[in-house]
UniProtKB/TrEMBL annotation:
SUPFAM superfamilies: Bacterial luciferase-like. InterPro entries: Luciferase-like_dom, Luciferase-like_sf, SsuD_RutA_monooxygenase. It comes from Oleomonas cavernae. It comes from the Bacteria. This is LLM class flavin-dependent oxidoreductase. Keywords: Flavoprotein, FMN, Monooxygenase, Oxidoreductase. Residues 300-334 are annotated as: Disordered. Transmembrane segments: none annotated. It holds the Pfam family Bac_luciferase. Residues 48-357 form the Luciferase-like domain. Residues 308-325 have a biased composition (Basic and acidic residues). One of its GO terms (molecular function) is oxidoreductase activity, acting on paired donors, with incorporation or reduction of molecular oxygen.
Length: 388
């Protein structure tokens, strides 16, 4: 693994977790944080009818509903795939769309994915856009720092994919500078190994709580090292793949390792994972629903699976290829949680015990299934003591 550059830290490096009244600190008080994993992409892996769609209005309504239910965060990914890719018909940019949701929400945190190496994106852009959204959202906006795991995406921007660990080195240099711009009271200049330079850069206003929320999603050593140094939250995958049994077996060691990596440099980091929830009142109805999703699946070459043909060097999903792990059913999500409301709660409580601090939930038929979660499952989570 390539070591991250050892730059001198900025003079005062405060994070939102250092402010007890920041939205992040409030979220951290929940035993199990709740989020929604939005689909701003036209991801359809099954033809079973569903209301889910990529449109802004649909997803903004989902976020408002999640906020009304007391959820702490909303997240969406962004991918840059050629025609026929994972996006199917359409895909909105998460940076713009989640940023815009700041104006129609009040309490929920909004985490936008940004491919921070493509372009290249200048640190002044990230710092200025970030400070602006931070003020509009009153400290509720954050970045999912993504470096791009698919060769085809880097090629779309006109170059070859940068080597896996080197991407984290470049992202670290970038965020050292972005954080300086968010905290320095004087003009700041920088020249390093990245293709951009800063000469007398200055950003004001400063973010309200030190800086926006920072997140990255990883399973690799280099990515965990990066998360330990820069992120408040790390989006993790199950080393055991998507079956809940294998996930529960493999997650304790994984979450402990990630938290230890942060603690070893005097930081704390929270772990979030994204299950899909498939639930109905009875086991029979739940099975019927899950089976219907699978029965209508488009298959490996069907619509919605266009991403699989593109090479990826990501470590995070390697557990799915390991034959000793139980396979998932193909319901979407990094983990599949299937069952009656009581069984869902059991599985979420079990996840919490593995060191998971929060879940960002996905649903096959997003809006009605989120309503069902709010009505039937959330009260049981409160009774179980994992929601305040
Ligand atoms: C919950 C989650 C969300 C992600 N969102 C995106 C995304 O929006 N765009 C993207 O290109 N990669 C996304 N990724 C991939 C990560 O950025 C990263 O490339 C991947 O986790 C592999 O990292 P690793 O090789 O360090 O394990 C996501 C990963 C996870 C687990």
């Amino acid at each position: 693994m390539t070591a991250l550059p050892q730059q001198a830290p900025p003079p005062v490096q405060l994070t939102p977790a250092d402010f007890p009244d920041s939205p992040l600190s409030k979220a951290f008080r929940q035993p199990l944080m709740l989020g929604v994993f939005l689909n701003l992409q036209d991801i359809k892996f099954s033809g079973l009818p569903s209301t889910s769609t990529w449109t802004f209005d649909y997803n903004a309504a989902v976020v408002q509903r999640a906020e009304a239910l007391g959820f702490e965060l909303a997240f969406s990914r962004t991918q840059w795939l050629p025609k026929g890719g994972y996006d199917g018909e359409a895909s909105l940019d998460a940076f713009v769309a989640l940023g815009a949701m700041a104006a129609v929400t009040k309490t929920i945190m909004l985490i936008s994915t940004m491919h921070v190496l493509y372009g290249p994106l200048h640190p002044l852009h990230i710092a200025k856009y970030g400070a602006t959204l931070d003020h509009i959202a009153k400290g509720r906006w954050g970045i999912n720092i993504v470096t791009g795991h698919r060769a085809i995406e880097h090629e779309m921007f006109g170059w070859q994919r940068i080597e896996h660990d080197e991407r984290y080195v470049l992202a670290a240099e970038l965020f050292d500078v972005v954080q300086r711009l968010w905290s320095e009271d004087e003009n700041y200049s920088f020249e390093g190994k990245s293709p951009w330079k800063v000469v007398n850069g200055f950003i004001t206003p400063k973010p309200l709580y030190g800086r926006p929320v920072l997140v990255n999603a990883t399973g690799s050593d280099a990515g965990i090292d990066f998360a330990a140094r820069y992120s408040d939250i790390v989006f993790i995958t199950s080393p055991g793949g998507s079956h809940i049994d294998s996930a529960l077996e493999t997650l304790p060691a994984h979450t402990a390792r990630i938290k230890q990596a942060a603690r070893s440099i005097g930081r704390e980091i929270k772990t979030l994972i994204n299950p899909v929830i498939v639930s109905r009142d009875t086991e029979r109805e739940t099975e019927e629903y899950a089976n219907a999703i699978v029965a209508h699946a488009y298959g490996p070459n069907g619509r919605g699976n266009g991403n699989r043909q593109h090479d990826s060097d990501a470590h995070a999903w390697r557990g799915r290829q390991d034959a000793k792990n139980k396979p998932g059913r193909g319901l979407g999500g990094n983990i599949e949680i299937v069952g009656t409301p009581e069984q869902v709660v059991e599985q979420l409580v079990a996840l919490k015990k593995t060191g998971i601090d929060g879940v960002q939930l996905g649903f096959y038929d997003f809006a009605p299934d989120l309503d069902y979660f709010g009505e039937r499952i959330l009260p049981l989570l409160e009774q179980a003591g994992v929601r305040l």
